[in-house]
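FAQ: What does the model actually see?

It sees only this:
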Amino acid sequence: MNIGPITFDGLAFLAPMAGVTDHIYRVICREHGAAMVYTEFVSANGIIRENERTLEMTYFEDRERPLGIQIFGDDPDILAESAAYLAESFNPDLIDLNFGCPVPKVTKKGAGSAILKDQKKVEESCQKVVKAVSIPVTVKMRSGWSKDRIIAPEYAQLMEAAGVQAIAIHGRTTSMQYNEPADLSIIAATKAAVSIPVIGNGDIMSAEDAKKMLDETGCDAVMVARGALGNPWLFDQINHYLQTGELLEEPSYSERLHQCVRHMQLKEQEKNSRLAAMLMKKNIGWYLKGMPNASTIRQKTNRSDDMAEMYLLLENYADDLGITLDFDLKGYSFPKSA
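And it is asked to produce this:
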């Protein structure tokens, strides 16, 4: 599979997720076999205004490649202007248009999946962004706004005609949120409607789920979202299963704790200690999910704003499990920001 000139070393992509797929977690997932990663979605308006926080979210390193910067907005001209700025200033491998976010604070502004209500705007946005950049443009979209208006196959054809080079389809409508299983038949219909690569998204929680998505839809790759929360090993598992038909063992408690601590330390190198503590709380919960007494340690870390205290809590928790934590980062270093 390829998207324009971009080739991949696997078929499992890390989905763009707000508050999750930052620089550090993208590196971690690439180390574990994610074939493609994306930034958190960034505001096209924030880009053209050169908002410091927005631009900070686009930071990446070459070891993350192939990487796409995902943008959202409701104005085709602003989307195109921001895409051109990003392509010129940051040189990502591709620009991805977010036509899939169902969060009300985004859709109320006509962006994310709300743009799917306006076919002309979708088509114009794709045409103008493709024209504005020389790198591939892709789209991530929901199957429609509601079940009575499934538009993915139809819109995918419009996008392909506009020059979009790949489309990721989430098999749910906006109104479904995450309350029902993804509809694989919509992804299959979209794949049948176009000749460009189609990436299947929705409910990839295991290697078997990935193979089922590929087999039942004919899609070219899968995009992993919630299944990757605190679980970068899922990419290794998918790659191995697709290549050999064998399932890898789940990571041990020791592996999960060590990866959690390493993530914390890298975050602390990148941010100030207090901010790092705030940002790591949800990640700690994800890494420890399903482990013995995980809810207790999660409650304690959630009440803390001090990284040293968090480290001690995890060290004591590891001791209770008979695990000795090694805090050696083995030379990894991330740039520090304010």
